[in-house]
Amino acid sequence: MIIMNKINLNMKTILMTLLSAMIVLSSCEDYLEQDPKDELTEAIYFTKPEHFEYASYNLYGALGWDDGDEASDLCSNLADDDVAHGYSVAALDDDDYWKKPYSRLRAVNELIQKAEEYTGDKDEIAEYLGVGYFFRAWNHFIMLKRYGGVPIVTRVLDVDSEEVYGPRNSRYEVVYQILTDLDMAIERLRFESDINDGTETGMVSVEAAKAFKARVLLYEATWEKYVSDIEYLDGDGIEAGAGSNKPEGYPSITDMLTDAKQAALDVMSSGEFELWDKRAQLEAAGAGYGDRHIYYMFTLEDGSNPAGLSKSDNKEFVFQTVYDYTYKQIRQNLSHSMKFTPSRKLMDMYLCKDGLPVQYSSEFKGYRNMTDEFENRDLRLVGLVSEPGKQYWGYGASARGGGARYDKTFEEVELETSYDYTYWPQLLNNAERGVGYSGLKFVTENYNRETNTESYNYPQIRLAEVMLIYAEAACELGGGQLNVSGATPISQGDLDMTINKIRARAGVAPLTYDLIAPYPELTMLGEIRRERAIELYGEGHRYDDLKRWGIAYDELRRSTCLNYIQYEGTSTEYETMVHPQYEDGRMLFDASVFPNGLTSGESATSSYAGIAPTKPGALIIDDASVRSFRVANYLEPIPKNQIELNPALVQNPGW
């Protein structure tokens, strides 16, 4: 249901619906509660290659939309519940992050087991078996990141299976299983060039499996390097560190970084993918649209941009969840909620066009006027964050004045709608989303898309991430040296083929040793991490990155700030402006609704000194006193009901 275009979608949707009713109805249940399946039913429906094909389609249903960066250190949107900051405050009775991967593994293992028993031509089902191995790795990795070591499940279980009541496997064993499954997948899957014919967009390829393998290898190499020595972080609830059981031949940190770099290079050099850069086409369609070209990569649908670009024009997504307005809408409140509104920290992490951070760049204009910090900046800031005083289309036919009417000017449409399309910051109510700044990533301006009906594809893995993996692995292999005289942890050639291509499409000068040499606080590893934070913001990587770098405790316990209401001892435009959209003389900013007030002194924003500190006068939206991330949060708690069902599951420490 998620991998076909409109030409083939209807028939394959029917077939997959029938399949779901026949053989995979049980996949939505917790595997711990499964009764043995009817062997006759399984025998009937795994006798032909097409049965394996349809079963493999069903596995893609595990892919969805990730909200993982919401309320992180880079986001000012705060949830309303006890896990407002993206991590647990107490062990949960139940947890979908445990339950759903295991229920999905049942369908995965059923496919793999039936493939092993298949008496026909094994080559005819090899690709579908490869899809099974890929998703077995995918689901185990979801649990590894959250819990550390977990019980490995590689077969269909019944109530008497030893895995149901067995202990957790060590972190090492889980990683080894993931990597083994990915190698099995890579041996069997088709290359992107063989499947990307327009009717199979979204199907997992050799390149997608290699990109995912690179992600896993980098994650685990850096976890082992930076996190394994942190006090009492257990991988299996028994031994310190990653757990005591390490499979024979388990890769070293150097091995994992080397393999991550190579897997990423294989994807980068395949010739099948390219960074999205449609500045010329969009600028030709209308002045100013070119600067927002990165925004349009994330909202591609029919009629979603002035240049008429479609999903087929995007060659950056290596692996994606495919949505369709008729058959599979996203069905999340994306545009209305504006999930990924940036914090002060993220705003200052964006570079100036000269490639330097705001605290060092001569091009930075400061904060006195509302638009100053948008001048001479990274196009990811310009395109993905609303600029005060600038006009932006709404979405759908009714929301915020209605969506884009590219054949008309804003002024012409305003005469029809009587709506002022000019954006002004929301600083009158601290309970709403989008306070202070307004994030535009994954926010549509399509006239025909009301909220919940957006249908652009979601990037599970894209080329920019693969390039970032390569650069980070290369720098770590070079020692990850800080700004030490004569140290070159990553070659300029490696920077130019990765980081600097990403910076070029963002309108930012290249990263070079000469550029950062005058600034002792700047390091190559720190700047690569900065690029990762900026580029992948809103795509569900931030919490995992902070954890694997061993800095989550430091980064996630600082105050979250917004706009500078005062700067260098005097009021900024935010504090002095009368709100242009009200006739009652109210000011743009109402201090009475923000109980945390403003920062009173300068403070470090990050453990990386290369990120600009917060100065006095910034609005505090979330005070450090309530940001309660603990060391125990590096591994989330096993849900209570699972331990009750299986006492052999020893809880993670600190819970």
In words, what does this structure look like?
The chain is mainly alpha-helical and 655 residues long. Helices cover 37% and strands 4% of the residues. The protein is built from 24 helices and six strands. The chain has a two-stranded antiparallel sheet. Helix 1 packs across helix 3, helix 8 runs antiparallel to helix 9 and helix 16 packs antiparallel against helix 20. It is globular and about 75 Å long.
By CATH, the architecture of the domain at 6-65 and 75-271 and 636-645 is named: Alpha Horseshoe
Using the coordinates above, name the CATH class of the domain at 6-65 and 75-271 and 636-645: Mainly Alpha
Query: How much is the average pLDDT?
Result: 89
In helices, the fraction of residues equals 25-40%
Distance between the termini: 40 Å
Q: Numbering strands along the chain, what is their spatial order in the largest sheet? A: 1-2
Strand content: under 5%
Shape, please?
globular
Which residue ranges are poorly predicted, with pLDDT under 50 across at least 5 consecutive positions?
1-41
Order of helices and strands: HHHHHHHHHHHEHHHHEHHHHHHHEEEHEH
Q: What is the tally of helical segments?
A: 24
Main beta sheet: 2 strands, antiparallel
Q: Roughly how many Å is the radius of gyration?
A: 25 Å
Overall structural class, as computed from helix and strand content, comes to mainly alpha
Number of strands: 6
CATH topology of the domain at 6-65 and 75-271 and 636-645: Serine Threonine Protein Phosphatase 5, Tetratricopeptide repeat
